[in-house]
Amino acid sequence: MFRFSFFYLLILLFSFSLSAQKIESEFSFKTDFAVRPTFVEGDNPFFVNGGKWVYLGRTADFDEPGLYFYDTESKEKIYRPVPLETYYLSHPTEFFGKIETTGKRLPLTIYEFLFYDEVNHRAGFVIENKHNSVNGKRYFFMGWNLSTNAIDVVEPIYEIGEVDKKSFAISSVVGYSREDNTGYFTFAVDADLKDNESVDVTVFIYQIQNQSLKKLKEYKSKFYPYTPEFHPESKQILIACYAEDFQKRNPMGYLYKVDSNSFQEFSIPSTPYGISFSKDGKYLYMAAADTGEVRMYNTDNLSDMKKSKWGTHGHKLGFWKEGELVWVRNSGLHIYDPITLKQKKVIPTKKFYKNQINVSGSTFLPFRKLLLRNILEDTTGGAANRILIAD
Q1: 97-126 average pLDDT score
Q2: What is the Cα–Cα distance from 360 to 334, expressed in whole angstroms?
Q3: Under the phi-then-psi rule, with left for phi > 0, alpha for psi from -120 to 50, and beta for the rest, what region is 248?
């Protein structure tokens, strides 16, 4: 009798672990150049518009500029054309190049989409301006007034000169706070991509509030900024660097506190795919995809740090509800206690997918839901997505 009861209890516990979430919606879209407007799937979807939409990707360079979203409420794909051509035609002297009749028409490309918010009627992105008639490149921040459907903020960020053959620029979204209509992003320039030892990467942290762009911080590094994370309530920005464990390059992290203008550099694990703040912003978690090492930092004292060892092949770390820190691995959703760092339960990814699994590009709407994305589910190129909510 005891054996039966114990076995039955195990079954109940296992069943509970598999049912500890519900699927809010499922969708799959693949890159399609044959339709108009074209759709090019992005590698890193993220929640926008107060969490109601998911940014999916954009149009191809040869098509009209536009952005694609998934509406989690209507379960529909949404297209929004961006009025870049209208702005260009009225301000042609601000940019390199000209409009072409074939191939890539506009000399402007949406280099990094940053935010979209219908409540504040604002959207923003970084633009790259280049043309085959000119060797140089220019980069701008552009603000989009959604009420008037007009570009009303254009601020130059950086220019790579015509004789500069080595520099390469990259931009990354950090986050957006609807409460004060403020977005953050990084922009970085590596003076020589082939030089991995010199401190030759210049990194800028920018804030866009309402219609005003402000450079908050500039620093030098050996590394490009990687997977920035934002805590909107405490206004903390974490910027990581990427290095694999075998490279022995000693990757660094940078914690920037906006309100106090505090900037701290500290050691971090290798391949930091997993980065998350606690709900109150007092703790920062970082997990390494290649070694499984996880670190928990006190954001008021970064030397106050706890280490543990989790599994490898993880792609995203975050909270889908308070008290459950989820390490999204190819094998499953591994859920941990955020204080002890001990594992609480596992939900296998095979519950959601039948074929090969690589959950790269999964993302959280912190303390609300998880977008689980399998880039291998559809062999024709589309990722199979599940939006999960913890019970």
Answers
A1: 94
A2: 15
A3: left
